[in-house]
Specification:
heterodimer, A: mainly alpha, two-stranded antiparallel ribbon, about 5% strand, B: mainly beta, 12 helices, 46 strands
Chain lengths: ~575, ~1000
């Protein structure tokens, strides 16, 4: 028996040894394919990665289309409306801008995630291995993102909760700060950034600079009615940042017909270093087919301004109703067809005619205005039948309207060409390179997108001068932009807030966040009623601000998050 | 497990007989009959401890030469209890066999051992696998569906799909809800359908807290124990083949709108122009034609072309299932074996939705010395999902007005003219998708010499899984060509050290077990994708040819460590006690809460064995009660804050520059995250009455789950949408019974009936323990949809009351055709805070199953009816035309199925609204999903034993069967049980099938 017992004892011992490892080690959990905050905010490279994420988030926010009802920063304002006239895509304020609606929620969540990530950077920076000198820059860059987020939130929702500390444990007791408190926080953060961030010449394309900070300061000071400070901040940008308006043809299509305003929106022309563009202040960076570039030549859901705004003339028949109006019944990468649109959002008559002094009832195909922003390159006001087999080939649809278009005006309408990239679509979305026809996967606007351009800073300074009562200087700033556009200079007596809004529309449509600008000036509701043929009747007085998302109010169970009045 | 017991008996007899052996030889003859005196051919007779044996002939007679008077003969036959008879001085030995195993004598697998059913103190259900052998079931789960009280198996509607499993309702909010699966004693991660149903000998389900406590931390959702077949000692080789062939079609007969239906739909969407206002939109407006609608040009062109293409019909087909299984089992004196191979081929309903499975198994057990036994359960499963099936969503939206191919016969990429691709394209893809599993479980059992009853067992389990998914598509990536390869690998290792001691002292029986073991899993995955190929001649095999290349990889590991002590005691088989303590540690919990203890105790009293018990007609009566605690694990890495370098966080600065990697904090850490813990009692009654004609059991249970793992919804103002935490309490109570009886039994005809019933109620007992609104009651967590004293699946939503009609006064933002949402507080506005109400719950009230087995002569007819009922406002499901209908343009250009009864001025009494008109609040209607289903029906013919024994066969059976042939329900759409209604988003129908097959053994 003994040998057995010892054998068994040995066996049991071996087994126990095999299983009986150190329990603590055995159960210790080591992540294999992700990081933790503890090991992710120590080196300079870590903080750089945290900042890169913020750039990606701001870009995503810029290009939300389908989930946020197609560019609600423009649609449903005085500049654009739901082309199909139905109840979706902000066709009715009462079913879209609601506390339970997706539009207010998606923006709120995105911006507060930016704020949360900024707070993590700021909180963990002092104890990191990053050298002091670099810390100040990283801190400034992060804070400017926070200021940029609060800019959106305060103008869109009013006074919102100020969250300035890193979240390390669950929190559900947020309360709203006043609008002034939020604006002052923006000033504080943007001022730190203005002091620490480098000049436009010292950074790579797309990166934040002191000019961005000063531009934001100018806008925020106006909201705080501190006009002198606004003027000073704008002046930093306009006169001391080595920025200037582009006045000559430049960039990728400079040898094709067009004008300098057209050049501003061609592929590769937005960046300072890469595109020789001296008026770009902050540009959301897109690249095609590079990880992190945001766009794919095989079709992407990002930056779908072309798809949302461009019309659908290629879906029409010629007036005889037999042949297609367009070559191969396909969209084409041309000004005439506007790329691969879907006619979701169309510009208002206010934009297409009023601001240029045109009468919508007459033939506006040939514009005699000197203002290049309404040239045939920049606003496409005609559709020419492009199917060679049609007897109407080469003729204008306005002269030979097809009955289908007469009954469905949404299938074609004039549009600003900056939403598309004629002749410059990437190969992957081109169906036939000889004919420039596009696949169904096209629809993105394949270029970098301006977040801030110098004219807007000039408009801000003009606004500050105006509100301060200095009409001369206000007119002078506006005329810098108008002169470049070859437009008639404005006289000081003509300058009003309404005029500035008109000028912004002429220069910045589909660039500026129109909803934000109008809300900031308190003019959203009045101007929608005046200029928006679809939403004029359904917008309510309280729609100047978005509602606080109901999901936030509900989840914020430890304190009351007050809803905006009216909702 | 019956076999192991038998093995022990055989061993005993063998030892005994060896002592008395003297040299001797004689011939034993006799006749074997069944319980009614009929001759039984094909009965196997073996001299114990030898390979000497024979079988009975057509008249039930046998003759066998034996070596001594001390010989014991063993008589065995499928379906009958084995018998052993000592030869003694007899030369004739006639034996009457009785049908096998009354359920109470059954041996039940209980985890790290077995117990007789009559000795159980907990609630353990054993499946009647025989009842479903003839059904065309690809997975053993389908054979369990509806047949055991308290076990809910979900409906499946895809080839090779794994069904969901739930035992006694839901006891968790966010924790894992699937039960623990143990195969041959070892944890089995993954698909049930990796197990060939033909290899399974028994399935036992641990339901009550005390039985489950044996598996402690992972047991909260119940434990399913699967035992695969093995051979028997001294059994001559038996070869069994079974094969079946099944064909299936959807249970509901529906079609996409055809040309006329489609065009009418377009008119209806545009009724305000297509019809005249004066007529109340019932007379067509002659000035309107389809070019005035939002129809895409491709669709408009299809009108004059006369197109009416049946996309659904052309992309679907009757599904086919083929099954072949071959098994060989047998055993010598010291070694037993079971060897099997199986093939299952399933050709899915949707083109290319195919599934193939090849399985192989070898179970081997051998006694090396008189103190050491070793063995192995090994198997391989090779599953092939290759072939890209079209997305049914794509089929659904495609209009009959367009054709899949152009005049030249080439596929049209975007037939509808939007981004929807041609549903035929996926079938042209090259796709290779396989999952392989290799299982090698090895064990050794040492009978500790000198200590009778003490044994040590080591189980060493190894489970390797390979996942391969490769594909290429010339139409991918916007027709520039795409290809990818994904390789993943998972390795799981288990080591159990089990010490067992069995002792009988007089009337006292003790069985004690101690276990020490671990389980660890490691997973890794690599994926590479390429887009933009000049050609795809090399398919996915050279991804470096792609213009745009993307790589990714992921990995994880987890570990579980456990110790268990368990003791069962019984006195005279009357008083039963079982107690267990288990300690578990799991890597996924926070640093301070890695381990926990799970105790349990069970008591039983067999009243019918008491001398004073004298109730006429009652043969067996047992009362049992138990208490136990179980845990629920959390997903690995749940307690850690995660910083993620996601695709969305990448950026590129400047033109033509390269990628910058960004990182973002994804989740908050929870340093206190711990086990979710369920404590509960179970009270049960087992009975057999009227000479065992009726037997059954009744169970009542009541359990409470504490420290619920719960993703607490946070205001996103914090930057996080939720955080995993422990909180609150949920109560589950339930009542189950299973009654089995034989209402009729004659010589030729028997009717066997089993009814099972279960009812489970859960309610939220506690949440955060806060009363912020000061009403004296604990607050609900509305943001998470949790309400005090209400079930987990409470539905809190807007209430709808019909559909707005043309002449109704419409509140702001509503249009005719949208749901009339009830303004609960009557303030004229619709706000989530004021206008939602509790509408009911998603949980059913009760479910039942009825199994009928009718035997007449050689025929056996089986019928199984399954039902789930909601009671009052229960078992609710959302039925809404989800899909591509959110805008007028999308609705116009999409197609849908003919069961969507949509509103229009022509059809004011429609049941469903028109989602394209938009509304300020998304009120949607819920309907009950109650159903009664004839789930399985089969007719088998067992050939006469006398006849087939001439063909040297032991058994030959032919059968036909039907599955899901009839479903009674008021639910509209695909199926009440899958909860898929009239939506067109992902409509895979539940199938009804007919099959025939045969089973033969030699």
């Amino acid at each position: 028996m003994k040998p057995y017992i010892s054998k068994i004892a040995l066996l049991v011992f071996v087994m126990t040894l095999a299983a009986g490892c150190n329990e603590e080690d055995f159960l210790n959990e080591v992540p294999l394919d992700f990081y933790s905050p503890e090991n992710s905010y120590t080196t300079e490279a870590h903080f750089e990665a945290a900042l890169v994420d913020l750039y990606a988030r701001v870009r995503d926010e810029q290009n939300i289309s389908s989930n946020a009802n197609e560019y609600t920063e423009v649609v449903g304002t005085d500049l654009a409306y739901n082309a199909r006239l139905d109840n979706n895509r902000l066709g009715n304020y009462n079913n879209t801008i609601t506390p339970q609606g997706g539009v207010p929620r998606i923006h709120w969540n995105n911006w507060y995630k930016v704020i949360s990530n900024v707070n993590a950077i700021i909180a963990r920076l002092p104890d990191s291995q990053v050298p002091q000198a670099r810390q100040a820059i990283i801190d400034g860059e992060a804070k400017l993102f926070r200021a940029w987020a609060y800019r959106y939130l305060v103008h869109t929702y009013g006074g919102v909760p100020l969250v300035l500390k890193e979240a390390t444990s669950p929190k559900s007791d947020f309360t709203r700060a006043s609008r002034e408190e939020v604006l002052n926080q923006i000033v504080k953060d943007a001022s730190d950034a203005a002091n620490s961030l480098p000049n436009v010449d010292a950074v790579i394309d797309g990166r934040l600079t002191n000019a961005v900070a000063n531009h934001l300061l100018a806008e925020t000071y106006i909201a705080l009615k501190q006009y002198d400070k606004a003027i000073a901040a704008a002046t930093e940008v306009i006169e001391k940042s080595n920025l200037s308006l582009m006045t000559k043809r430049f960039g990728s299509l400079r040898n094709s017909s067009g004008d300098v305003y057209y050049d501003l929106f061609r592929v590769g022309n937005q960046n300072r270093k890469g595109g020789g563009n001296t008026e770009a202040i902050w540009v959301a960076q897109y690249e095609t087919d590079i990880p992190g570039g945001g766009l794919s030549s095989t079709g992407s859901r990002a930056n779908q301004l072309e798809r949302v705004v461009a019309p659908l003339p290629w879906t029409l028949k010629d007036p005889k109703g037999k042949l297609s109006a367009a070559l191969d019944a396909s969209p084409a990468s041309t000004l005439n067809e506007g790329g691969r649109g879907a006619s979701f959002v169309r510009p208002t008559e206010y934009y297409l005619y009023d601001i240029w002094g045109l009468d919508p009832k007459v033939d506006n195909r040939v514009i005699t205005k000197a203002d290049i922003r309404t040239s045939k390159y920049n606003i496409v006001r005609d559709f020419i039948y492009s199917n060679p087999e049609s007897s109407f080939f080469g003729k204008s649809m306005i002269d030979f309207p097809t009955p289908q278009w007469v009954s469905q005006s949404w299938r074609w309408y004039p549009y600003p060409s900056k939403i598309t990239t004629p002749g410059q679509h990437p190969e992957g979305v081109i169906d036939n390179p000889a004919k420039l026809t596009l696949k169904s996967t096209a629809g993105s606007t394949y270029r970098d997108m301006y977040l801030i351009r110098l004219p807007e800073t000039l408009f801000l300074r003009a606004e500050a001068y105006l509100l301060k009562g200095d009409l001369e200087k206000a007119a002078a700033d506006l005329n810098v932009v108008r002169n470049r556009a070859n437009a008639t200079p404005v006289t000081p007596s003509e300058v009003t807030l309404e005029y500035i809004l008109d000028e912004r529309a002429r220069e910045l449509i589909f660039e500026e966040n129109r909803r934000l600008t109008l809300a900031r000036m308190g003019k959203l509701v009045a101007r929608v009623r005046k200029y928006n043929p679809l939403n004029g009747d359904d917008i309510n007085d309280y729609n100047d601000l978005f509602p606080i998302p109901f999901a936030e109010i509900e989840a914020n169970k430890d304190a009351k998050l007050e809803q905006n009045p009216g909702y | 497990m019956k076999q192991t017991l038998l093995l022990k008996k055989i061993f005993l007899f063998w030892s005994f007989s060896m002592l008395l052996t003297t040299a001797f030889a004689q011939t034993i003859t006799g006749k074997v009959t069944d319980e009614s005196g009929e001759a039984l051919p094909g009965v196997s007779i073996v001299q114990k401890g030898t390979t000497n044996g024979t079988t009975t002939n057509a008249e039930g007679r046998y003759s066998l030469n034996v070596s001594s008077t001390s010989v014991v003969l063993s008589f065995s036959f499928i379906g009958y209890s084995s018998q052993e008879q000592a030869v003694g001085n007899n030369t004739t030995l006639n034996v009457s066999m009785s049908p096998s195993a009354e359920s109470l004598e059954e041996v039940v697998v209980v985890g790290y051992g077995t117990q007789k059913r009559k000795d159980l103190t907990g609630a353990i259900a054993s499946a009647n696998l025989e009842a479903f052998r003839e059904a065309p079931n690809v997975s053993i789960l389908q054979s369990l569906k509806g047949s055991l009280p308290g076990l809910t198996i979900g409906q499946t509607n895809r080839a090779g799909q794994e069904a969901s499993i739930q035992i006694r309702g839901v006891s968790t909010l966010n924790g894992n809800t699937s039960p623990l699966i143990i195969v041959d004693g070892l944890i089995f991660n993954g698909r049930f359908s990796d197990i060939n149903p033909a290899d399974v000998a028994s399935v036992d389900v641990l339901k009550d807290p005390s039985s489950k406590a044996i598996y402690g931390s992972q047991a909260a959702n119940g434990v399913i124990l699967v035992t695969t077949k093995s051979g028997r000692t001294n059994q001559k080789p038996t070869i069994t083949y079974s094969g079946s062939y099944a064909t299936s079609t959807p249970t509901i007969d529906t079609k996409l709108l055809d040309r006329e239906g489609y065009l009418q739909k377009v008119r209806d969407i545009n009724y305000s122009n297509a019809y005249t206002k004066e007529s109340g939109y019932t007379q067509l407006n002659p000035a309107w034609d389809f070019s005035n609608s939002d129809m895409n040009p491709q669709l408009l062109a299809g009108i004059p072309a006369g197109n009416d293409y049946d996309w659904y019909g052309n992309l679907t087909q009757p599904a086919l299932i083929t099954n072949h299984s071959l098994g060989v089992s047998g055993g010598s004196e010291k070694t037993t074996y079971f060897l099997s191979a199986g093939y299952t081929g399933e050709k899915g309903f949707v083109l290319n939705d195919d599934y193939k499975r090849v399985t192989a198994r070898l179970n081997l057990d051998t006694q090396v010395t008189n103190w050491l036994t070793i063995g192995a359960n090994t198997s391989g499963t090779f599953t092939d999902f290759s072939g890209d099936a079209p997305s049914v969503g794509n089929i659904t939206v495609t209009s009959p007005l367009v054709l899949p191919r152009d005049e030249d016969g080439n596929f049209v990429i975007n037939p509808v003219g939007d981004q929807t691709t041609n549903a035929f394209l996926p079938a042209t893809n090259d796709n290779y998708n396989t999952q392989s599993r290799l299982v090698g479980n090895f064990y050794g059992v040492v009978k500790v010499p000198g200590v009778p009853g003490l044994s040590y067992r080591a189980n060493f389990g190894n489970n390797v899984r390979f996942f391969k998914d490769f594909g290429s598509s010339i139409y991918g990536a916007g027709q520039t060509g795409s290809a990818y390869k994904t390789n993943a690998y998972q390795y799981e290792q288990t080591l159990d050290n089990i010490l067992n001691y069995t002792k009988t002292i007089g009337k006292h029986n003790i069985n004690a077990t101690a276990v020490y073991g671990y389980n660890k899993v490691r997973y890794e995955r690599t994926a590479a994708t390429g887009k933009g190929f000049s050609d795809l001649d090399l398919s996915y095999n050279n991804l470096a040819l792609a213009e745009v290349q993307n790589i990714e990889s992921s990995a994880w590991k987890e570990a579980l460590l456990y110790q268990l002590v368990s003791a069962a005691y019984s006195y005279e088989g009357k008083y039963l006690l079982k107690a267990t303590v288990r300690r578990d540690g799991f890597s996924g919990f926070s640093q301070n809460n890695k381990t926990a203890l799970f105790p349990s105790i069970g008591l039983g009293w067999v009243i019918s064995q008491e001398p004073f018990f004298d109730v006429p007609g009652v043969d067996f009566l047992k009362i049992r009660g138990s208490y136990g605690e179980n845990g629920n694990k959390v997903a690995r890495y749940s307690s850690l804050a995660v910083v993620e370098a996601a695709e969305d966080s990448k950026y590129v600065f400047g033109d033509g520059s390269s990628t910058y990697i960004g990182r973002s904090v994804k989740t908050l850490a929870n340093k206190d995250l711990k086990w979710e813990r369920t404590k509960g009692i179970n009270v049960g009654l087992d009975f057999a009455v009227l000479k065992n004609r009726i037997d059954g059991n009744i169970e009542y249970y009541n359990s409470n789950t504490f420290d619920l793992l719960w993703s607490k919804v946070l205001p996103q103002t914090s930057g996080f949408s939720k955080v995993l935490s422990n909180l609150g309490q949920i109560n589950n109570t339930g009542f189950e019974f299973m009654i089995h009886g034989q209402p009729l039994k004659t010589n030729r005809f028997t009717w066997d009936l089993t009814v099972n019933f279960s009812r489970n109620r859960n309610k939220v007992v506690s949440l955060l323990g806060e009363d912020k609104d000061g009403d004296g009651k604990e607050d609900d967590l509305i943001a998470s949809g949790l309400f005090m004293n209400r079930p987990i699946g409470t539905i809190y939503d807007y209430q709808v009351d019909g559909i707005y009609q043309l002449n109704d006064e419409l509140p702001k933002g509503f249009e005719p055709g949208s749901y009339r949402v009830i303004d609960q507080n009557g303030d004229g506005k619709y706000a989530p805070a004021d206008d939602r109400a509790i509408l009911g719950q998603s949980e059913p009230a009760y479910s039942f199953g009825i199994q009928n087995t009718l035997s007449y002569g050689q025929f056996t007819l089986r019928m199984f009816v399954n039902s789930i009922q909601g009671g009052k406002n229960g078992y609710l499901g959302l039925n809404y035309p989800f899909g591509n209908l959110d805008t007028r343009g999308n609705a116009t250009n999409s197609n849908w199925f003919d069961f969507y009864d949509y509103w229009s001025p022509r059809n004011p009494g429609a049941k469903y609204p028109t989602p394209w008109v938009g509304a300020p609040v998304g009120g949607r209607a819920y309907y009950q999903r109650n159903f009664v289903r004839l789930q399985d029906i089969s007719l088998a013919y067992n050939f006469d034993k006398r006849l087939i024994s001439k063909l040297k066969m032991q058994n030959l059976k032919l059968f036909v069967s039907g599955k899901n042939l009839l479903t009674l329900t008021k639910w509209d759409g695909w199926d009440p049980e899958t909860g898929q209604g009239i939506n067109s988003r992902d409509p895979y129908p539940v199938m009804k099938s007919y099959s025939f097959g045969l089973e033969v053994s030699f």
